[in-house]
Design a protein that fits this description.
Largest sheet of chain A: none
Structural class of chain A: mainly alpha
CATH superfamily of the largest domain in chain A: RNA polymerase sigma factor, region 2, helix turn helix motif
Bound molecules: zinc ion
Number of helices of chain A: 9
Order of helices and strands of chain A: HHHHHHHHH
Oligomer: heterodimer
CATH class of the largest domain in chain A: Mainly Alpha
Largest interface: A-B, 71 and 63 residues
Strand content of chain A: under 5%
Shape of chain B: elongated
Number of domains of chain B: 2
Distance between the termini of chain A: 36 Å
Radius of gyration of chain A: 18 Å
Number of domains of chain A: 2
Mean pLDDT of chain A: 76
Number of strands of chain B: 0
Structural class of chain B: mainly alpha
Chain lengths: 212, 214
């Protein structure tokens, strides 16, 4: 859980000084640590600082900037009836935990880690457990087989909706959120080999839908 | 489609194949258009998946979230662990300090007059004056450091730091004005002295951090 995925490129040289200073401020004896390559300055930096101080307007801006992706994660990781509650709980948890955000990664990366944890815990609490991972219900055929959107990114998002739950959550965690197989294995209580085979299965299913 | 080969593709994309198997796969792909097509599709899929955007929820969930966070919203110094100062503490300091200043001003404006005693006038006020002077010099030093290092810090950082310094400065002035209106309140003078000491450490830490970071 310590490795942070990097999905956005660029802006790294610009952000170096902030990152270095953050590390210097938080590390023991003000020593310089290694730079997390995923750190990225942006409007989040100011709003996180304001929200830590209790500014709800700043936190609303963070919410609006990130809610679409958190909503997508909820759509893929929790039951349809639980999506709205899960999204709300994520942002309430983030508000409560904001003071512990160490700035070692981009805020969005940290937020997504919190979101995944909240969602997986909700699922456990609601009684859906690891059995879901080997759930083999094949839902892709029920989804509109041919992507309506010409753009690959949107087509992928739609197609992920139709993956069987077990393959879907592993695809989302690995390919969309950057978790490693051993992290997924720990989170879901499955074997890393299962994570690998389900990921490949998900990719092949998606590829089939996207190519059709 | 040749499953023997497609089964290796995810591992190949994720860099988990040994060199010998990679070479075997490569040579198969060179001669099999169908498998090469599958590989290209998978690579495109894996490259594109992280850029998902999602869609906003159909209903606006913010009012519900706002209601819940209002219940937990605390404007206090106690929100963070006292161990170590972070970048965010520095940025938040101005805001929190301003809030403390505003609350202090309100208190002084509205409270009942307190009888002045000799004891009330002693140690806390003196401690405050001492901290206050050190605070001025720490603030000035951070300002100088920021000016000297401006070119090496990115503009967003400089903007936020400058704004925080202005807010802290204003809040300190406000606190001082309030103290001048009532030098006798030992408890509040003590509180302000403690807050100033905390911010003093914070400013020194920020100065050191900028110096070591640039
Ligand atoms: Zn082939």
């Amino acid at each position: 859980m310590t490795d942070v995925p990097t999905f956005q490129s660029g802006g790294e040289s610009k952000c170096r000084s902030i990152k270095t200073m953050e590390v210097a401020l938080t590390a023991p004896a003000w020593s310089l640590g290694t730079l997390a390559p995923s750190f990225r300055p942006g409007p989040d930096v100011d709003d996180v600082a304001l929200a830590v101080g209790g500014d709800a307007d700043a936190f609303e801006r963070l919410y609006r900037r990130h809610v679409s992706k958190v909503n997508a994660l909820a759509r893929w990781l929790v039951a349809p009836a639980d999506v709205e509650d899960a999204v709300q709980e994520v942002f309430i948890r983030v508000w409560e935990k904001l003071g512990t955000f160490a700035g070692q990664s981009a805020f969005g990366t940290w937020l997504h880690r919190v979101a995944v944890n909240v969602m997986l815990r909700r699922r456990q609490n609601l009684g859906r457990d690891r059995a879901r991972v080997i759930d083999d219900e094949f839902a892709l055929d029920a989804v509109a087989a041919r992507p309506q959107q010409p753009e690959l990114r949107m087509a992928i998002e739609r197609a992920v909706d139709g993956l069987p739950p077990g393959a879907r959550e592993i695809f989302v965690l690995h390919d969309m959120e950057g978790y490693k197989h051993d992290e997924i294995a720990e989170l879901l209580g499955v074997d890393p080999g299962t994570s690998r085979s389900q990921l490949h299965r998900a990719r092949m299913l998606l590829r089939k839908v996207l190519a059709s | 489609m040749h499953e023997e080969w497609t089964d290796l593709m995810s591992a190949a994309i994720d860099g988990e194949l040994d060199p010998v198997t990679i070479r075997r796969l490569d040579s198969h792909l060179a001669g099999c258009a169908e498998c090469a097509g599958v590989m290209a599709d998978l690579q495109r899929l894996v490259a594109t998946a992280p850029s998902y955007q999602g869609e906003a929820p159909a209903a606006d969930l913010w009012p519900g979230i706002k209601g819940r966070i209002d219940a937990t919203k605390v404007l206090s110094f106690g929100r963070r662990s006292p161990a170590g100062f972070g970048f965010r503490e520095l940025l938040a300091a101005g805001i929190v300090m301003a809030a403390a200043g505003a609350v202090g001003s309100w208190y002084w404006a509205h409270r009942e007059p307190t009888p002045v005693t000799v004891a009330d006038r002693s140690a806390p006020g003196a401690g405050l004056e001492l901290t206050s002077t050190a605070y001025d010099s720490a603030l000035a030093e951070l300002g100088r450091t920021l000016t000297a290092r401006r070119g090496q810090l990115d503009t967003a950082t400089v903007r936020v730091l400058e704004r925080s310094i202005r807010t802290i400065d204003q809040a300190v002035a406000e606190a001082r004005a309030a103290i001048q209106r009532d030098t006798a309140n030992a408890y509040l003078n003590g509180q302000i002295a403690a807050n100033l000491r905390q911010k003093l450490n914070l400013l020194k830490a920020a100065t050191r951090a900028i110096n070591s970071a640039t």
